[in-house]
Amino acid sequence: MPQRYRDIYPSLPLIDSEGIEHVSAARLMSVQYFQAPPDSMPEDVFAEHHLLLNLKEDPHRVQNRRNGELRDFEFRKNDIIFTPAGVRSGWRWFAQSDVIVVTLEPAEVQRFAERELGMLLSDKQFEDLPQFSDADLCAAGVMLRDSIAAGDMSSAVMFEAMARVFLVKLLQKYGQRRPEEIALSARFTSVHYQKVLGFVRANIDRTIVLDDLAAEVGMSSSHFSRVFKEVMGKSPMQFVLSYRVEQAMRRMEDQSLSLGEIALDCGFADQAHFTRTFKQLTGTTPSAHRSNLQPTT
After folding, report:
1. Which residues form a coiled coil (predicted)?
2. Nearest-CA neighbor of 286 among 256, 245, 232, 254?
3. CA-to-CA separations, 52 to 14, 91, 102, 137, 256, in angstroms, rounded
4. Which end of the chain has the lower number of beta carbons within 10 A, N or C?
């Protein structure tokens, strides 16, 4: 099954983020810019979310078959079409296209929303809005495209920054939060989660124990541990360890920091403890991971 629109789009992208490596944003999204004559795309189901950002000045006719239902509409500048993962979709357009296609990996979106924004997303992740207009989000998409087009040493840095801007805007406006009734009848809500995340962020270089987290949300340790695992799918201390490792991975991009410094900064007892935990969670060692971050010459 194709993973991205680029696999079946009838022309090659003019600009493509696929060549950008060693940045965390590349795990979250890919970005392609297309200009193609009138054509069509066969129906298919994709494992990822797709957003089509229309940059064409003149309105033009587009047909989109979506889970068996045909939509025949006028595509205007700054219109966005959102196709969630798992939706069968096919396309036909009747004029030269001028679109940015942003592909989002659902598991990484979920992780970003939880870790960076303190948002607990529903299973669908986004509101059901097959077509909407958003000039601000399209402008962020253009900056994302242009960061790739620079084609120099700054491209990766700019892509990382603009990818974050784009995703934060998208999630804050259109992210579908988990209903409180699903979140264990409000026994553990997004407010509780944000308090836990804030505490872990503020104390990442220190020892954190279960009682600390439970006190932060005003629950007993046993009750907190139970509801946290039911909602988040892992125990509180597993969450803390995975957060420490994720932050360590970010710090490893700074080649001036030693692995020993990173270990202490992220709350590990020593480098040996860091290495052991890192390998348990990622399947590789910190040294091997860092060597893969270094660009080849």
Report:
1. none
2. 245
3. 15, 12, 7, 11, 39
4. C
Indicate the DSSP class of residue 18. G
**Sequence-distant (≥ 6) Cβ neighbours of residue 201 within 8 angstroms:** none
Contact 240, 197 (CB under 8 A): no
As a whole number of angstroms, the longest Cα–Cα distance in the chain is 62
Q: Quote the CA–CA distance of 40 and 287 in Å, as a whole number.
A: 47
Query: What 8-state DSSP symbol labels residue 6?
Result: G
d(CA 284, CA 268): 17
Cα–Cα distance measured from residue 134 to residue 152, given in angstroms and rounded to the nearest whole number:
30
Residues of the chain with CATH 1.10.10.60: 190-293
Pairing label, strands 29-34, 15-16: antiparallel
**What fold does the segment set 5-177 form as a domain?**
Jelly Rolls (2.60.120)
What CATH fold (topology level) applies to the domain 190-293?
Arc Repressor Mutant, subunit A (1.10.10)
From CA 16, how far away is CA 32, in angstroms rounded? 5
Q: Which two tokens stand for residue 240?
A: 């803390």
Q: How far is CA 13 from CA 31, 54, 61, 111, in A?
A: 9, 15, 21, 28
The token pair at 92 is 């036909």
52 DSSP β-pair partners: 81, 101
